[in-house]
Amino acid sequence: MKHTDIRDLFSGKVQTGETVTVCGWVRTARDSKNMAFIELNDGSTLKHMQIVIDKASVTPPAAAMHLGAALKVEGVLVPAQNGGGVEINAAGIEVLGDCPPEYPLQKKFQKLETLRETPHLRVRTNTFNAVFRVRSVMAAAIHRYFQERGYVYVNTPLITGSDCEGAGEMFQVTTIGYSDKYKNREDYYRDDFFGRRAGLSVSGQLEGEVAALAFGKIYTFGPSFRAENSNTPRHVAEFWHIEPEVAFAELPDIIAIAEEMIKYIIREVVETCPTELEFFETRFEAGLREKLRHVIENDFAIVEYTDAVEQLKASGKQFEYPVEWGCDLQTEHERYITEEIYKKPVFLINYPKGIKAFYMKQNPDGKTVAATDLLVPGVGEIIGCSEREADYDKLVSAMTERDMDLSAYRDYLDLRRYGSVPHSGFGLGFERILMYVTGMQNIRDVILYPRTVGSIR
After folding, report:
1. If you average pLDDT over residues 408-434, what whole number do you get?
2. Within 13 Å, how many C-alpha atoms sit on residue 154's CB side?
3. What is the pLDDT of residue 165?
4. Phi/psi class of residue 70: alpha, beta or left (left: φ > 0; alpha: ψ in -120 to 50)?
5. In this model, does residue 234 exceed pLDDT 90?
6. What is the pLDDT of residues 372-390, one digit of tens each?
7. How do 152-153 and 86-97 pair as beta strands?
8. Residues 45, 97: contact at Cβ < 8 Å?
9. Reduced to 3 DSSP states, what percent helix, strand and coil does the chain have, rounded to the nearest 5?
10. How far apart, in whole angstroms, are the C-alpha atoms of residue 325 and residue 176?
11. CB atoms within 10 A of CB 136
């Protein structure tokens, strides 16, 4: 049906005095003897359009005053009587969809935990209107960043026969399901759809490297799946992943690319979503906009893993998890480094090879790999990054040490035999950068339908 988005009425695209038609859902309603007022929102903006009803000329349907009801309103756009802006003097109201009294969003403010119980309705609240508007802007900015710089966008498989991380935390893909007729796993997989074990991809990196060693610069942007039995505020089983791979790039090169990209997409949100950021700063994180400006305007720190461990040990802070060289840093360590020591994003580089993935380039010291994690205040790690091991023998050695099935990585190993070059890449968790930019504290609140242990609604 023909109508005007409410955002366009607030932006000045339509002049006051014009007759307009808007559609939306009732967010608040006030009724009196002679007048009635409805706050209408159509999802196109955080702002609600006030509908003014003079009962001397218009009799609103009873259902039009029901919270959550969907309406079509025709009227004249006029200057608002209170607070500036515009409002609509209604000339006609049609109820498109009534809403019963048990509508779950009755309270003006509800806990985020409560709203997670109604993911199909929580998107109608101000909080999730703002979250998903920022998510949309940021996704577009990511594509624009890479496209403007000549990267090729590739779509890597979601069903794979190899585990990128080598950790086995994959969801199995099968057409057989449970069966007791097979004597062993080999017979089971041989009879399955692909004739071998298959799973949902934890990362498009391995296939991304294939493309990068043909096109030079590529990126992927799509879902990844990890079967981790984790119930932290930073983990979900299905998340979105940005993964560039760049040929002829060593670790310092990919670090520079990662920093430039982060600043680019944050700048885009700051410029495009000022209303949403103001909302987040008021409700969720004081000083949010200043934090984001600080990120845009200042260089990120680059710190050796070894130095960071010594700083943590010397801090006097009693951590839940003790810190020693060789340990995999926990969120509490990462946040202390960024929030207390450096007070800005930090690239932590040259991790012990024993706690990092098999594909990372081994440093000459024999103990560390050319890897980095980008740590940010309030969240911890949002980027995992490394120069990839380009030496065939060293890669095979690393895989053998981990008892990996080399036959499952035949194509990947071939890249090291046929014109191997230094190349690097990173993975950015889309939901984690969203948490950082919006101030939301739980990853479940920046994704439409979060998939977590025991939850598949």
Report:
1. 95
2. 24
3. 65
4. beta
5. no
6. 999 998 888 999 999 999 9
7. unpaired
8. no
9. 35, 25, 40
10. 45
11. 12
Q: What pTM does this model have?
A: 0.93
Max CA separation in the chain (angstroms): 86
The two beta strands, 152-153 and 217-225, are parallel
Residue 48 has pLDDT above 70, yes or no: yes
pLDDT of residue 166: 56
Between CA 266 and CA 292 the distance in angstroms is 7
CB 309 within 8 A of CB 322: no
Q: What is the DSSP string of 304-339?
A: EHHHHHHHHHHT----SS---TT----HHHHHHIII
Q: Which whole-number Å values give the CA distances from 90 to 21, 38, 42, 53, in the listed order?
A: 10, 10, 16, 5
Token digits for 265?
A: 């997409």
Closest residue by Cα to residue 167 from 409, 410, 343, 404: 404
Which of the residue ranges 12-21, 201-210, 230-239 would you say has the lowest mean pLDDT? 230-239
Three-class secondary structure of residue 63 per DSSP: helix
Pairing between β-strand 301-304 and β-strand 346-352 as defined by DSSP bridges: parallel
Pairwise CA distance, residues 276 & 264, whole Å:
18
Confidence label for 130 from pLDDT (cuts 50, 70 and 90): very high
Mean pLDDT of the chain: 95
Q: How far apart are CA 238 and CA 159, in angstroms?
A: 14
Q: Helices (DSSP H) in 166-250: which residue ranges? A: 185-190, 205-215
Q: How far is CA 377 from CA 254, 302, 336, in A?
A: 21, 15, 8
Rg (CA), the chain: 26
Distance of alpha carbon 29 from alpha carbon 51, whole angstroms: 9
Exposure on the CB side of residue 41, measured as CA atoms within 13 A? 16
Backbone angles phi, psi at 88, to 5 degrees: -120, 125
For residue 84, what pLDDT band results from cuts at 50, 70 and 90?
Answer: confident
